[in-house]
Amino acid sequence: MRAVVKTSSGPGLEMIDVPVPELGPDEVLLQVKATSICGTDLHIRDWNPWAAAHVTPPLVVGHEMCGVVVDKGPKADGPEVGQLVSVESHVVCNRCAYCRTGKGHLCENTQILGVGRDGVYAEYVAVPAMNAWPDPPDMPYSIASLQENFGNAVHTASVPLVSGRKVLVTGCGPVGVMAIAVARALGARLILASDLSDYRLDMAKRMGADITLNPTTDDVLAMVMEVTEGEGIDVLLEMSGAPAAIDQGFASLKPGGEAALLGLTSNSLNFNLDDHVIFKGASVYGIVGRRLWVDWYQMRGLLRSGAVDLTPVVTHRYALDDFERAFETMASGDCGKVIMFPDPADADGPLD
Predict the structure, then answer these.
(1) Model confidence at 158, in pLDDT bands (50, 70, 90)?
(2) pTM to 2 decimals?
(3) Which residue in 228, 164, 240, 227 sits closest to 196, CA to CA?
């Protein structure tokens, strides 16, 4: 089968032929219908220090997808052959203390598709049956493929209380704008969004932001204080990992406020812990992946009820064979989610 593979240490990815995965006894074999690009995949392509420390080539990359079950191992429960499914990329052990106490997203033995085991940029992938999440048969492939990414937004926006409150989202990449939609669906009173890209700020507006701010032209803190009558925001959803955005976000947070942090920093952070957290009595939450399976059930409810529409987030579609152009589009930042289709006939919109 065709697959996008990290063949060796160093920058780059290659499309090569590899064997169809062997099926474990508790696994299902999926024919990949659509797969979306994540920032993690860009790091692996570019071979940054994180990728060099976590990825051992050769490896099929990619971890966001939907597909159809085409075969099952003898001990595989769950979705039947022919079922459309999305995939939870964190394969957990179900034995450690975290898994046994309802915190599987913190499993100490986690293997991540496309990072610690072969991923989904391929025609087929084998995953544990429990990681295959059944989807409605009429769900568009592009939407089904980005549900795992959507789960990060659901987790981030639902840990703090947003209902009736003033929220600032720093970082309006795909997860950030989806978090805006979730906060809106959960009843946020006012949503502000900041990003350096006007393209992404426009997307933030379409996904439900009331006010958008570009730090290159706007004084974020001054604007926040103006629209909140000097109080500051109740909730910070930090999605960027950018030191300046983190500082602006916490400076905007009112005493007793809550901050949920998903964005990863690339360098050490010079952060005023005393003023930003301790003396404010702020509550700070680190967000890792998706809570298994709480966030998946909440995603299902938000999508089926129509409370959240992810259609505007999908901005580009490519054939998997054209993965290099797809990656360049994602790296440009002038995009939402970039979806790739192993079979171009499965595309649910025009291909770029």
Answers:
(1) very high
(2) 0.95
(3) 240
The residues with which 285 forms a beta bridge, in sequence order, are 260
The bridge status of strand 84-87 relative to strand 64-72 is antiparallel
Q: Would you say residue 172 has pLDDT above 90?
A: yes
* Cα Rg, the chain, nearest whole Å: 20
DSSP code per residue over 2-34:
EEEEE-SSSS--EEEE-PPPPPPTTEEEEEEEE
Distance CA 336, CA 310 (A): 10
Exposure string (b/e) for 7-42, b if CB count within 10 Å is 16 or more?
Answer: eeeeeebeeeebebbebbeebbbbbbbbbbbbbbbe
Count CB-CB contacts under 10 A for residue 215.
16
Which DSSP category does 264 fall into?
A: P
Show the domains of the chain with their CATH numbers.
Answer: 2-146+310-346 (3.90.180.10), 153-286 (3.40.50.720)
Contact 292, 92 (CB under 8 A): yes
Q: Which among 109, 103, 123, 229 is positioned nearest to 166, based on CA atoms?
A: 229
Residue 158: which residues within 8 A CB-CB, separation 6 or more? 182, 186, 295, 298
- Predicted confidence at residue 78, as pLDDT, reads 87
User: What is 87-100 written as a DSSP string?
Assistant: E--EE--S-SHHHH
Q: 131 φ, ψ to 5°?
A: -90, -5
Question: Does residue 98 have a pLDDT over 90?
Answer: yes
Find out whether 316 and 335 touch, Cβ atoms under 8 Å: yes
pLDDT over threshold 80, residue 267: no
Q: What is the dihedral of CA 208, 88, 61, 118, to 10 degrees?
A: 180
Neighbours of 109 (CB within 10 A): 13
Active site residues: 40, 43
Contact 302, 182 (CB under 8 A): yes
Report the C-alpha gap between 217 and 246 in whole angstroms: 17
